[in-house]
Amino acid sequence: MKHIAESTVRRLSLYLRYLEEFEARGLATISSTELAARGRTTSAQVRKDLSFFGSFGKRGLGYSVPELEKRLRRILGLEREWRVVIIGMGKIGAALAYYSGFRQRGFRIVGLYDDDPAKIGRKVDSFTIRAAADLARDAAKQPADIAVITVPAGAAQQATDAAVRAGVRGIMNFAPVQLSVPAPVALRNVNMAMELEGLAFALTNPG
Amino acid sequence: MKHIAESTVRRLSLYLRYLEEFEARGLATISSTELAARGRTTSAQVRKDLSFFGSFGKRGLGYSVPELEKRLRRILGLEREWRVVIIGMGKIGAALAYYSGFRQRGFRIVGLYDDDPAKIGRKVDSFTIRAAADLARDAAKQPADIAVITVPAGAAQQATDAAVRAGVRGIMNFAPVQLSVPAPVALRNVNMAMELEGLAFALTNPG
C-alpha cells in the first residue's frame, strides 16, 4: 500500500465519526458531498482519501453508511481490541487512565506503571500502579500493543526502550521530547504546547 | 498571506524546537539539510515551509540559528504572552492546569472554571476554581485570549459560547465533539482517542 499521510488517517477517523452521527440519525446512504460538508472539506478530498483503499460506493447512489463505517473501522484497525499500558502516573497519565473515550474505541488499558516508590502500589481507577521494571514480566504473560508515555521528558526514552523490549509495537508520546524507536515500532507525539502554538499562530496571522 | 496548512505550522513549531537544541549545542548557523535531517524531512520541505514567510538565510551560508529562531517565534506569535483560561476542572483540565510546558512557551493560565458547585472554590495549583458564569465578569477586568475546553462533550458547545461571549479569540477543544465558533475565532481540537486510532492504523497497515 502507498504511504498514507497522518493527515489522511486523521480525516478517516473524522469520517468514521460523521458516519456514526449519520447512522444515529437514521440515514442509510450518504454522498461524498454530504460527508465533505459535514467535515468542511471538499467531495474531491473525500473521494481521494477513500480511493487509497479501493473502490467504495456506487456512482450516483453514494455510500452505504453502515458499509462505509465497517470498512473504515477495518482500515483504521478498529475491528479488534488494542491492549494499552500507560507509563508515568503523574497528573496527565492518571487523567488518561480514567479517560472513557479510549475504551469506547476498543483501546483497553491493561496496566499502569511508574518508577516512583511513593506511587507503586497505589490504586488508580481499578488498577494498582506497578513498577516500570514489572512491565516486561507482565507483558510476557499478556503482551500490550501500545504504550502511552507520560513520564517527564528526561525519562521518556528509557521508558520507551523498556516498552519496546516488552514487545509493545506502538508508542504514543506525551513527553515534550523527540523519541527514537526501532523499526517497525510506530510512534506518535502529542505535544500540548505545540497545539497552543497552532492557536497562537492562527490568532497572530488571521484570515 | 496565503492560507498556511496546520501541518506546516506544526513543522514550524518543530523547527523552532530543533533550533533551540542547535543553539544549546553552540551552533551559530544551520543549513536546510541539517534542519531537515533533524526533523526527518527533506531540505526542499524546509525551504518551502520557510518561503511562505519571506526570504531567510543566505545561499551557501545557511541560516543564522538565533535569527531564524527569532523569526519563527514572531511568525508563530510567541513574542508575546497569551492569557489562557481552562473551562472544565475534571481530571484532564486539572492536569493541564499544572502542566509547566505551557508557561515555558508564553501561555499563562489566568483562570480555571467549572460549573460543578462541589468544585467551585477549590484550589488547583495557585488558582481557586470559579463558576463558569464568572468568566465574562473576570474577562471584563482582564480579558483572556484562549480558552481550553475540558468539559464533557454535552457541555462543550455551551462552554465555548460563553468563552466567545467573554471575548476569547481561540478555542482549544479536548471534548470529543465538533464545536462551532463564529469567525474570526480560531478552533483547534485535541482528540486523545483519534491519536490512538492513528497508531492503530499504523500497526494495522505496516510499512
Describe the SSE topology.
Two copies of one chain form a homodimer.
Chain A: H1 6-24, E1 29-30, H2 32-38, H3 43-51, E2 63-64, H4 65-76, E3 82-87, H5 91-98, H6 100-104, E4 107-114, E5 123-124, E6 127-128, E7 130-131, H7 135-141, E8 146-149, H8 153-165, E9 170-173, E10 186-189, H9 192-204
Parallel strand pairs in A: 3-4, 3-8, 4-7, 8-9, 9-10
Antiparallel strand pairs in A: 1-2, 5-6
Structure description:
With 207 residues, chain A is α/β, with parallel strands linked by helices. Chain A folds into two domains: 6-76, Arc Repressor Mutant, subunit A; 82-194, 3-Layer(aba) Sandwich (Rossmann fold). The first copy, chain A, contains nine helices and ten strands. In chain A, strand 5 (123-124) and strand 6 form a beta hairpin. In chain A, helix 1 runs antiparallel to helix 4 and helix 2 crosses helix 3. Chain A starts with 5 loop residues before the first helix and ends with a helix. The model of chain A has no long low-confidence stretch (mean pLDDT 91).
